[in-house]
Amino acid sequence: MQYQQKSKVLIVDDQPDNINILSYFLVEYGFEIFVATTGEKALQRVEKIVPDLILLDIMMPGIDGFETCRRLKAIETVKDIPVIFMTALSEAADKVKGLTLGAVDYITKPLQHEEAIARINVHLQLRNLTKQLEQQNTLLRAEVRSRQLAELALRFSEEKFAKAFRSSPAAMTLATLEEGYLMEVNQSFCNLTGYFPEEILGKTDRQINLWENRQERDRFSQLLQLSGAIYKQEFQFRTKLGKIKFVLVSAEIISIGDTNCILMMTYDITEQKLAQETSYRREQEFRALAENSPDIIARFDRQLRHLYVNPAAELATGIAAEAFLGKTHRELEMPEDVVMLCEATLSAVFANKTEQSFELHCLTKFGTKFYQVCMVPEFKRDRTIASVLSVSRDITAVKQAELELRKSALREREKADLLELTLNNLKRTQSQLIQTEKMFSLGRMVAGVAHEINNPNSFILGNINPARHYFQDINNLLELYKKKYPAPGEEIQQIAQSIDLEFLQKDWWRLMQSIESGAKRIQQIVESLKFFTKLDESGIKQVNINQSIDNTLLFVQHRSRGKGISKTINGSIISREIDVIKNYATLPEVACYSSQLNQVFASLLNNAIDALETQPYPRIMIRTELETAECSAGSCPETRAYNQLSAAFPPHRPPGEFAVIRIADNGIGMSEEVQKKMFDPFFTTKPVGSGTGLGLSIGHQIVVEQHGGQISCISAPGKGTEFIVKIPLQAVTCAPELDTASVSQSVPDA
To answer: Rounded to two decimals, what is the model's pTM?
Structure first.
């Protein structure tokens, strides 16, 4: 008969022939075969596969069949598998031993196939029936327990406190006393543990692993059995997710019908526990730091009394630490100023709930000490202030260092001021030396050029009149020939026509006038050069300012041609010339260093010309006027507001009248930042190689220091620039005159 359900059979035998024979006919009957040749291998195989039946040989090398059977029955997962011994032993003692070890049957060798199959089928059927019976018993027990729990729950629901149980904010459970099955739980318990009711009802606290420590569970049971109730005992529960909760448990044994039950009430104290542990740890850390800190650390209550001081306070004040406790600063008889400052600050911290800091100094046994004090509120859980922590740091060394640093900084500042003054003098001297050398070379060159030009020009001017007389005599002779010989020969007529004799006679006079005009112009230029450089003059002279400006204009007029935006006319590029508008007032002669002022005018005019290179209608306006001291002071209606950028007049002798020279252009203008620096030596806004940065610096020096005057500026970007120069009519005692070579004409740049 073939076994209908395919079952797994493990054959354990050391004889290959026996294994082959058994395997062959068992496979024929539909079994799934697994083989092991020793007891050790059989034990290893059952860890990987769980057979339905084991055929085990008794006589094997290593551990025999009896020992193998004993070990198999000790394994939880395979102890219920039927074991049939295969043996040639027929002694009753051997069979009894095998059955005692857990075997279910014997098959005697040599094996009879039909008998073996029959025995195997019988024991497999018995195993299956046993499994079915166990399953039915399990279901029956579960049903009985479910009915019991349902009955208990029904009885519980009828009790007066059922509603209070379910709605209680405390976590509550009801469990049987004997088995410990959970009959009822409220929502607070589910919130505490993370379980749903259906996940835990009908289970024990051990099955859901509720207690973190089994010893605590046993202690809970012992206390409950002894007294019948416990009140607020601290334990640890484990939630569904494995999180540990600290709880206070109160429990009591109650009877519901005929069943004794445990009513348990649980309070979650995890946060309080953690807060206590954190507070304790922080307090220990605080104490460890405070006790070893060099800073004075104290704690105060709302009555401003000391709750704690560290050893540093005792060391600094000489008062024992115990004497501080419970006393205020005033009660400790501290200095009045310290008491008032500390009390006011502590009161402010309690009132405003904010940190406060201040500095104080007091006399200690070590002398005067400076402290930086910081007072910080310490809050309770409800955000009310429990106390105020005060930390006082000794900053005496820092204060002394700051004092020394201030003294050192003052000394360094004095050195810096002296160095800056020396540097300014050096820059001034350097600029003077540079300009002196430049002007000296330029003055000699101009003098030489003027001399060389003057010699041939004097020759030309000296020979113009004789040339006129000679031509007049020749012309008279030609007229006489025409009169005496009205019909000259053909050859003479051809020559007269070729040279246009009549035009030559008429144009000769105009030619001589042009030569004379050019020679006089050259003579005028030479005179202007000599006047401008004043190489033959030194010291203060009475000078016509208007004439000085005109001579300076003559010297720089070559630069005014071709400035401004160019335009094209009939294919030729023509640059617009600068319009120079002059408005001179009648001025008395001014006592001044003439060549120096010419240098200032030249610098201002050259800068104006440079600023007009991109203007469509370039224009320079020059105006002179007379100004009195009252008008200069601001009482005159004509006084104009401008940026004062020069030194004031000497207070002991203000001048009475001034010659005012205004030179303005409609150029690009200057920013406020540039105006602040324009009189600094070597400052220039021009490209590298286009300016030295000395023109305005030297001009300022000439006007202010040499003549006791003023030079100022009105300017804005895109609105042009106006320079105002004021020169006293009478000489003012100022700095010594510059070297005469340094006041020769130049073209300095701003």
So the answer is: 0.35
